[in-house]
């Protein structure tokens, strides 16, 4: 085993960093639930680098695919190639509810300091200023997977004190019908399985204090300052547990990502 | 044997204005697009669209003003256009009601419909604004009064688990569409449906509906499908009309037949940004052709041939997908 050879600044793109950092969240042997886009890059990279025995479920209904052509969406025939089972949504969402999913990757338009995510609408919900695609499986997966990892763009308007609409539940959530803010463990009771474990952005990796229910900075990507990170966040960041810089991608990870995972450049930008 | 074969025009005439409808497929895969185009040509309106998830086909119906209620969890075009401009525009105009559920909620609602039960319990999506009583949009519109038997009197309800004392369960109401329109790779003369690859939520959608229309790439002998019944999804007696229509899912993709026409969807999604753009697109691709054959002629042989799936891989190996 040779020492890891890390790339240097300027030798990787934001998407490279997101994919590599997300891939490292997978532990070997885990069952991972993934949607379209960056999650596909992350899990396929993890399967080739750090978690060769992880199993992949695509949201549209294929289980443990072993194809070598990157799907362009979860409904793609490429998801079926060498799959263990090609079934449908009823099967995979039942497995999720049964507690069989260890980790899932998700995205969002807005997130708050408790990890609540909005992918539905901005503004007044009953008369929205912008309508997004909607929840999809985000709230289900974030309810019923043991850990979820969010991959998002870091912008002040996206990292908010509170989101306009809670599409997907974080650590402090609304207990309906009263609408009072409560800890996720209290709302989910015996069916509490876990929750958001990391948020990976183009600037940093965040984690959660699961008891307090709040987000904190875990590592900051090389070249980004604390000030820049704070400027791009709409609430006061907790740096008290910051471990320093995010581990850079290695040459080997980037080679696999670009040559084996996405050689066609479907989600990865061309390397400059 | 009852012959269910008919033309697309005849099949679409089975849909009434104000019907509750649903479709096969997943976002941009195996959507019965030829049926959507024909619904627009026949001027269907007031539709109550209920789906596990929506895609390009739904944006088209919504943009054309054919839909008055949309209940689902997601609408977009995946990689080819993430913003549902038509739904956004209709919401701002106040000409559509959007009722949000989560994917699992919609799936279980459809499954309950298929199982003939009034609701289904689930643990999913607690703590979200989907359950915010203020955001029950059909209630706000006064439509949960029991007058329409397709609209449940509540968006959802809670109950304590009475058997294992596991806590508060969410009950989501069954969906019972008037019509489900399906795209399948193969259908038998009597209506037995065979779907290859992922089956998405087709089984639940088909079985929940009162009437089922199938557009198939090919109609094959029933005896052929009955050689391997384990590969079939739905028996023919649940199906009301079958139409043989190759490429009926274009521009969405069909496993083993053809890939998604990403460039076509991207152009459509982009046209949806403005009302004028949308109208021009529809005038060209829906009203500008008489029927499905003319649509295919307009697309052209070489475009379709590039999308055609390799018989081993089940997807096209000729489409350029990325930047390399």
Automatic annotation (TrEMBL), chain A:
SUPFAM superfamilies: NagB/RpiA/CoA transferase-like (SSF100950). It is an enzyme of class 2 (transferase). GO terms for molecular function: 3-oxoadipate CoA-transferase activity. Pfam families: CoA_trans. SMART domains: CoA_trans (SM00882). Coiled coil: none annotated. Transmembrane segments: none annotated. Keywords: Transferase. Belongs to the 3-oxoacid CoA-transferase subunit B family. This is 3-oxoadipate CoA-transferase subunit B. It comes from Aneurinibacillus soli. The gene is catJ.
Automatic annotation (TrEMBL), chain B:
InterPro entries: CoA_trans_fam_I (IPR004165), NagB/RpiA_transferase-like (IPR037171). The keyword Transferase applies. It is an enzyme of class 2 (transferase). The keyword RNA-binding does not apply. Gene3D superfamilies: 3.30.30.40, Glutaconate Coenzyme A-transferase. GO terms for molecular function: glutaconate CoA-transferase activity. Keywords: Transferase. Its EC number is 2.8.3.12. It holds the Pfam family CoA_trans. Signal peptide: none annotated. This is Glutaconate CoA-transferase subunit A. It comes from Aneurinibacillus soli.
């Amino acid at each position: 085993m040779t020492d890891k050879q890390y790339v240097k600044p300027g030798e990787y793109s934001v998407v490279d960093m997101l994919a590599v950092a997300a891939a490292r969240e997978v532990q070997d042997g885990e069952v991972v639930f993934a949607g379209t886009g960056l999650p596909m890059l992350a899990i396929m990279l993890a399967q080739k680098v750090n978690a060769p025995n992880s199993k992949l479920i695509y949201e549209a209904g294929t289980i443990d695919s072993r194809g070598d052509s990157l799907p362009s969406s979860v409904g793609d025939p490429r998801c079926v190639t060498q799959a263990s089972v090609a079934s449908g949504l009823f099967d995979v969402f039942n497995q999720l509810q049964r507690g069989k999913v260890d980790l899932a990757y998700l995205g969002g338009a807005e997130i708050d300091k408790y990890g609540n995510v909005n992918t539905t609408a901005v503004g007044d919900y009953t008369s929205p200023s912008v309508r997004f695609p909607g929840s999809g499986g985000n709230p289900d997966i974030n309810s019923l997977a043991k850990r979820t990892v969010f991959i998002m763009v870091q912008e002040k308007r996206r990292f908010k004190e509170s989101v306009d609409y809670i599409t997907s539940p974080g650590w402090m959530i609304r207990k309906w019908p009263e609408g009072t803010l409560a800890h996720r463990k209290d709302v989910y009771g015996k069916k509490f399985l876990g929750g958001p474990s990391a948020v990976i952005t183009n600037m940093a990796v965040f984690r959660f204090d699961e008891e307090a229910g709040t987000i904190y900075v875990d590592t900051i990507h090389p070249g980004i300052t604390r000030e820049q990170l704070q400027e791009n966040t709409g609430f006061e960041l907790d740096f008290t547990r910051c471990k320093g810089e995010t581990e850079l991608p290695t040459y080997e990870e980037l080679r696999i990502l670009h040559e084996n995972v996405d050689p066609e450049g479907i989600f990865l930008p061309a390397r400059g | 044997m009852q012959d269910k074969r008919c033309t697309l025009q005849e099949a679409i005439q089975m849909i009434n204005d104000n019907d509750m409808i649903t479709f096969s497929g997943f976002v941009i895969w195996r959507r019965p697009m030829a049926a959507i185009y024909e619904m627009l040509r026949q001027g269907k309106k007031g539709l109550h669209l209920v789906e596990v998830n929506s895609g390009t086909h739904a944006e088209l119906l919504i943009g054309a003003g054919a839909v008055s209620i949309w209940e689902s969890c997601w609408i977009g075009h995946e990689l080819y256009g993430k913003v549902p401009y038509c739904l956004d525009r209709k919401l701002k105009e106040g000409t559509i009601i959007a009722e949000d559920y989560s994917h699992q909620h919609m799936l279980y609602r459809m499954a309950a419909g298929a199982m003939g039960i009034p609701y289904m319990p689930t643990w999913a999506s607690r703590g979200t604004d989907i359950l915010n009583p203020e955001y029950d949009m059909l209630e706000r519109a006064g439509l949960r009064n029991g007058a329409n038997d397709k609209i449940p009197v509540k968006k959802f309800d809670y109950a304590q688990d009475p058997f294992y004392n596991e806590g508060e369960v969410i009950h989501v109401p069954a969906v019972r569409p008037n019509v489900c329109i399906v795209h399948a790779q193969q259908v038998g003369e009597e209506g037995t449906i065979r779907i290859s690859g992922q089956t998405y939520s087709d089984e639940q959608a088909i079985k929940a509906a009162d009437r089922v229309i199938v557009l198939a790439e090919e109609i094959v002998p029933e005896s052929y499908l009955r050689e391997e019944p384990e590969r079939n999804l739905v028996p023919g007696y649940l199906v009301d009309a079958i139409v043989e229509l190759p490429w009926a899912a274009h521009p969405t993709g069909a496993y083993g037949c053809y890939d998604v026409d990403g460039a076509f969807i991207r152009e459509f999604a982009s046209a949806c940004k403005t009302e004028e753009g949308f109208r021009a697109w529809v005038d060209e691709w829906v009203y500008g052709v008489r029927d499905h054959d003319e649509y295919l002629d307009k697309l052209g042989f070489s475009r379709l041939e590039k999308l055609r799936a390799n018989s081993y891989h089940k997807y096209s190996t000729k489409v350029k997908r990325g930047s390399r």
